[in-house]
Amino acid sequence: MATRFCQHLPQFDVFGTTWALLAEIDESEVMGPINSLINTILITALIAIGLIVVFALWQAQSMAQPMVQGVELAKALADGNLNQRIEVDRKDEIGVLGNALNAMAENLVDDPGY
Questions:
Q1: Cα(37)–Cα(101) distance, rounded to whole angstroms?
Q2: Which among 36, 84, 89, 105 is least buried, having the fewest CB atoms inside 10 angstroms?
Q3: H/E element holding 114?
Q4: If 0-12 CB within 10 Å is exposed, 13-18 middle and 19+ buried, where does residue 57 land?
Q5: DSSP state of 19
Q6: Alpha-carbon distance values, 10 to 7, 20, 25, 70 (Å)
Q7: pTM of the model
């Protein structure tokens, strides 16, 4: 048997007749829409979290890869390989760093005593 919620109001008199109001509803009828809403919120939150994680990983990769290339260029220059360069197609700080490393390599080639 399903659990039932009951609500009653105090008795009241209408034209000499005493009335009472009683409302009754099944728990499943009350909780059904609430459970559906909770499930929808959870599914939406999980999808949003998944998209945020994918976006964060993509952003981290797009920032880390040029830095790794810059480190590799710096190591090559330190080892004496002055002909190595990195391809820079960014306009942000990472692109500025890549261009500076390329310029440094050019200066080292042009003036070995530099």
A1: 55
A2: 89
A3: none
A4: exposed
A5: E
A6: 10, 6, 19, 80
A7: 0.61
